[in-house]
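FIELD: query
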Amino acid sequence: MAHPAILELSNVGKTFRSADGHVRPVLAGVDFSLREGEIVALLGQSGSGKSTLLRIMAGLIPADMGEVRYCGQPLYAPARAISMVFQSFALFPWLTVQQNVELGLEARGMAAPQRAAKAEGAIAMIGLAGFEGALPRELSGGMRQRVGIARALVTEPDVLLMDEAFSALDVLTGERLREDILDLWRGGGMPTRAMLVVSHNIEEAVLMADRVLIFASDPGRVRSQLAVKLPRPRDPESADVRLLIDEVYALMTAGAGRAGRSVDAAAGQAEAPALQTSLAERLPNADVARMDGLLERLLEPPFNGRADLPQLAEDTELTDAELLPAAHALALLGLALLDAGDLQITPLGQRYVEGSHTLRQELFGQQLLAHVPLAAHIRHSLEQAPNGRLPETLFLRLLAEQLDQAQAERVLQTAIAWGRHGEVFGYDYTTGMVHLPTGAEDDEALHDARP
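FIELD: result
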């Protein structure tokens, strides 16, 4: 028998309005239930709306459409029984550990002796007994995050929302803290009845969660989900865990580089082709050196052209947040294929790896103009400009019609970095001007490749 839902989202949507008045959908049609006794992990690209979704679930910001219900009742404001842990720790540096943990209780009007006792209990539960009088600057990153978790748990919430809570920590510290949280969960030491964990780490999601949700972007929505029925504690090296990690990698990369088609694992149906003509298409945040390194490693033993993504991550020591954008970028440019959680080099990619530096630049530039509308637009605009130069602000304003300012800047920076490598255009860091590369008027290869 299924446990009752604590949080329910039905057709939830959220839009933001940019400074120039353009409306941008961030979330659309989000349906989700968080049930008592379960941990759910949410995976998706940066900027896909995951943090916005958590803030809606916490009642910190309202949904523009749809409904959010907590214990069957509409949620219109922050709920006392929902707590949130942030990536950035969010501690007050002038307050002690004890004072930081007591803040939520003080805001509720709890008497000083009672809140002191509760805070001490939460601090001890999270493994920081003896540090009650320390200031945040005197603690390590892992200890500061423990303070943030103690502050969230001291109010005895039904629901704990964790927004990239382990990602700011080094690997070993993050693993230790995650294991301690799971030990408390298994042992009944936590007051929490359900947890939602936003993460970039696929292994972390599989080790923690009862369900893994894959979030799509532009706008954000639940694309697919995977049940994890393995008992805890879970051995990260076991065959069952590795198989599930493989499956999540496959879900995360489904449809990449295939004319915009993606697969919903729950429904078993392909979504309608996504439009690939948008200039504000969210480019993978991948630098060229990492992309080159992945292609070169793919051709070497033991991969010989095709690699299982989890094995490639282990071999290259790249995090999922580093590997997946680079793999998506290679697929977008036609230098590799993403298939069922594997990365396979294409004949063009092999030619790229085996070519000279000049050939690599030429091939990269051709693929960039053919597959990235923003790059083709910038190139065309520069060719129409009298002196072959235009300010980057012109393109930022265009991107800001569909993206927020930070995302617009990130997408343009990526496009410029890729364009410089492919000698499609150049960039003056002093003046902020984008310009045609030297000798561009004689570069017939790029003219021929332009869509």
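FIELD: remark
The chain has two domains: 5-253, 371-449.
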